[in-house]
């Protein structure tokens, strides 16, 4: 399987110095996407977006914006001024369901978020059901299976004209059965090599099977950074293992 660099998203749960070390050493192929989350930006600063992108590593800002609709866009704009490659919100928090109104401020925050991202030439993304949630947790929280809840969100996100979603690889195949959702790119965390521990993830799949299920991109953290030695050595070694899994289809 021929892999494009942007099909791997490194979930960079590292400090700023380690991040710069990986980027400056080209431990990952140029064009590999780097995901930086809200905790990273609370500890460091948003200039990390510029640092990576100026060196040809697109940045997925995993802000997981969780806010009342009136404040969603204001928070998004603090990131959009750095023009990241992609920015996300939590699908179930920001929506009011109002897609049309004479008062622009009353229109669904997801719609306004998608439009702001489009204007900034940034991919707009929403997280559906976290891959750490089990079937039992979803039944208690949503009264639905993870699959049913993800499909509810996907319908809403298509109407709001977002470009991307985050869901587990287990839901990707079901989404891809519906041609109307082909406008949405699927980014899948919960990706593990066959011999890896699931850790805090509940709904997981191997890299090869996740792509075969219809995922566009794989979000990988531990399976890129685990092991002994310098972080650059670990990443190079683990990246090769991921490529091997994609070649074997295991």
Describe this structure in words.
The structure is a single chain. By secondary structure, the protein is of the alpha/beta class. The protein has one domain: Aldolase class I (TIM Barrel, Alpha-Beta Barrel). It contains eleven helices and eight strands. The protein has helices at 16-25, 38-43, 47-53, 69-80, 109-119, 135-142, 146-159, 169-175, 207-212, 222-225, 231-248, and strands at residues 8-11, 33-37, 59-65, 86-90, 123-127, 164-166, 185-188, 217-220. Helix 9 (207-212) links the parallel strand 7 (185-188) and strand 8 (217-220). It is globular and about 55 Å long.
Number of domains: 1
Instruction: Kindly provide the name of the CATH class.
Output: Alpha Beta
Any idea what the radius of gyration is?
Answer: 18 Å
Order of helices and strands: EHEHHEHEHEHHEHEHEHH
């Amino acid at each position: 399987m021929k892999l494009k660099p942007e099909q791997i998203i490194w979930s960079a749960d590292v400090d700023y110095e380690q991040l710069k070390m990986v980027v400056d050493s080209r431990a990952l192929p140029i064009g590999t996407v780097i995901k930086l989350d809200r905790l990273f930006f609370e500890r460091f600063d948003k200039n990390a977006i510029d640092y990576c992108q100026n060196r040809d590593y697109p940045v997925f800002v995993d802000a997981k914006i969780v806010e009342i609709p009136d404040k969603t866009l204001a928070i998004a704009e603090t990131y959009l001024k750095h023009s990241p490659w992609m920015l996300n919100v939590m699908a179930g928090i920001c929506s009011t369901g109002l897609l049309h109104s004479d008062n622009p401020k009353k229109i669904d925050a997801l719609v306004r978020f998608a439009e702001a991202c489009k204007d900034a030439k940034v991919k707009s993304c929403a997280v559906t059901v976290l891959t750490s949630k089990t079937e039992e947790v979803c039944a208690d929280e949503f009264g639905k299976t993870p699959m049913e809840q993800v499909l509810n969100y996907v319908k809403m996100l298509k109407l709001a004209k977002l470009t991307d979603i985050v869901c587990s690889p287990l839901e990707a195949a079901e989404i891809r059965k519906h041609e109307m959702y082909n406008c949405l790119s699927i980014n899948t965390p919960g990706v593990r090599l066959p011999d890896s521990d699931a850790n805090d993830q509940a709904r997981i799949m191997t890299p090869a099977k996740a792509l075969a299920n219809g995922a566009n991109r794989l979000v990988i953290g531990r399976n890129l950074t685990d092991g002994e030695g310098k972080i650059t050595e670990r990443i190079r070694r683990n990246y090769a293992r991921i490529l091997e899994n994609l070649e074997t289809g295991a």
